[in-house]
């Protein structure tokens, strides 16, 4: 599977994103009660934020998943850990489907990580999933993330985890 990425276009993509982020399987996205206007507003704010970016992952030109990348020195994790130069925060969401494809979500997170590490300035990817989200912990581990500790964010108890470029490549079986 080959994915491409494009920036979220809030007016154009809000309706689609609304169906994704409010679905019961997207509970960890914490937008269950959002209306379409709320989703458009949230992604308009992200589009205007120099430290936070939302991208749609496309498969054959069609939206297949959502990813966000952010600067943890300025967003999400400010004051919760000591950021290092080259740290990039990441979230991803694979929408629910009636016809799941085995290995799709793992292909998505692998593509997200490859995309982040295409930038030579990215030294380490930082994630902070909910401690109870066991499925994403397994996916994170599969691409090289190492949990550091639990932290309390304003929204949740999270598992702060890191993945260096070397850890990602090792998880992919690439020797460095």
Automatic annotation (TrEMBL):
Name the Pfam families on file: Acetyltransf_8
- Read off the InterPro entries from this record: Acyl_CoA_acyltransferase, Acyltransferase_MbtK/IucB-like
Q: Which GO terms describe its molecular function?
A: acyltransferase activity
Q: Which SUPFAM superfamilies match?
A: Acyl-CoA N-acyltransferases (Nat)
List residues of the Acyltransferase MbtK/IucB-like conserved domain.
Answer: 6-53
- Write out the pathway annotation from the protein's UniProt entry: Siderophore biosynthesis; mycobactin biosynthesis
Keyword Transferase on entry: yes
Gene3D superfamilies given in the database record: 3.40.630.30
State the function annotated in the UniProt record. Acyltransferase required for the direct transfer of medium- to long-chain fatty acyl moieties from a carrier protein (MbtL) on to the epsilon-amino group of lysine residue in the mycobactin core.
Protein name in the entry = Lysine N-acyltransferase MbtK
Per the UniProt record, the source organism is Streptomyces bluensis
Upper taxonomic lineage: Bacteria, Bacillati, Actinomycetota, Actinomycetes, Kitasatosporales
